[in-house]
Amino acid sequence: MKYFKNLVKPYVLWSSVMIIIPLFVMLLYAVTNSGNSLVNIQFTFENFKRFAEPVYLNVFVKSLKLGIITVAICLVVGYTLAYIIAQFKERTQTVLILLVTIPMWINMLLRTYAWISILSDNGIINTFLEKLGLSPISMMYTDFAVMIGQICDFLPYMIIPIHTSLSKMDKSYTEAAYDLGANPVQTFFKVTFKLSIPGVLNGVIMVFLLSISTFVIPKLLGGGQYVLMGNLIENQFISVGDWNFGSAISILLASIILLAIRWMKKIDTGENSQK
Amino acid sequence: MNTLIELKNITKTFDDQQVLKGINLKIYENEFLTLLGPSGCGKTTTLRIIAGFDESDSGELLFDGIEISKLPPYKREVNTVFQKYALFPHLNVEENISFGLKLKKTEKSVIEQKVKKMLALVGLSGFEKRDVTSLSGGQQQRVAIARALINEPKVLLLDEPLGALDARLRKEMQTELKKIQKEVGITFIYVTHDQEEALSMSDTVVVMNDGYIQQIGTPTDVYNEPENRFVASFIGESNIIEGKMVRDCLVEFDGFEFECVDKGFKENEEAEIVLRPEDIDIVKPENAKITGTVESVVFKGVHYEIMVKTDLRSYMIHTTDFFDVGLEVGLSFGPEDIHVMWKMV
To answer: Domain B237-342, what fold?
Structure first.
């Protein structure tokens, strides 16, 4: 066993060099002034204060709103699909889950570009509408386009954890509920759904995390004017060059995500202990 | 007694495998009926068909004279105690037990009262707020029974409910279950592969094998008058000998004729004879027709298990007296100890 424990060491080294140290560097950037040299560091909270400006707060609220809607739609669609998949025989389930994951093998950029050719003004949908003699709809660079892109990209992350918790659930629980007089609808809400909550929470956390920090999808499907938290951070680092402010936003975002996860885990354990 | 459930020619096939090949069974009110058989004999499937979890391929299932084959489980007046209890892990003891009543929109005070009564019945008073996952196997078992009984079903189905318990606890629960059944006065249908459990608890034992019912009878009937080789060998230890019925009350085997009490066979019909090990007495060779030598002696606690080798076969005998290996002995038994069965085709 000792021997196997040693195997973790390269990973510890790797993660401290590649993750923990950069995080500290980011933290350092976030609490210092720009233009500092290592000899002459000036600490400040200016970067965090700046975030409270309405421009940035609006971006945050917009991101949050979009994230929540994406999560909600993914949850309804994803749960339905996961539930349907879980009803099949085990071998069919494996195939169906494979089908769900196949899009994830393709680069996200490509998938997003595909949406452009579907949604754009002379894309597939509009060509089709024109053929039917209907007037074209402008769909690109709207909330709708960004949301479609996000939902389709992130849906597998919702389906898989929910499917896992549904498929490993003992069939005798639903049978027991039927046996005690619960009809299929009551059985679903009183037993099946309640028992799948851990999977649901994992899916929700995953999709929320992805959608609040994404920057590729809003950039491509939302256009240059469409700014979410991810784009804001990207801009600060790449075009504006204000690494200090960029770091501060990143850290704020990370803290918000962490708090959200903590809060959701609390709901989970709270339900188990009191209900 | 009134017939409560009647199965008529029930068959069931799973993936090309016929599990039930025509089950006919009448279950009466207030009866403790046990479906007994080896694994794969169809006993659990029969129970699941009565509960409504599986649907039979053909045949009729009557409940109080009404056909219920197509009725979903949540509309049937039966409740089940599952093999692995299937207590809802997200609910505590009280919420588990009251699950059925809450669905029926029973008044809160009534529920509280009934839960208390049920917990007292199964000996778990004061456990209302406990987390079910923190309970021991025996306690979970009791909660499962309470959860089923609180709905006041006409029939309680129990699917090997004691299988997961250790031997001592199992004995305890056997007596308890029988007591509970007497107290609530409803029909229990009990599935088990444990013959001792079946014999000690049931009013009626239904022995099943290979998708067929082999014998239906009281525990004493099934033990003392097994109808065929399978029943004789599955329930208790037995010496099974091939022979023939010379005429009513006279049977021939191992080259001798013996008086017996069985009737109804054709003259000289081939038959199989069961001699229970505890029904054979070891006597002096000159006092018996069948003689042999003691081949082995094993001490089993209360009795010795002695194998006696005769010219044709080895007999197993259970006796509290000790006989040494190599001793010449005779085997004696009375007419009522001989059980003649139809030969299995």
So the answer is: OB fold (Dihydrolipoamide Acetyltransferase, E2P) (2.40.50)
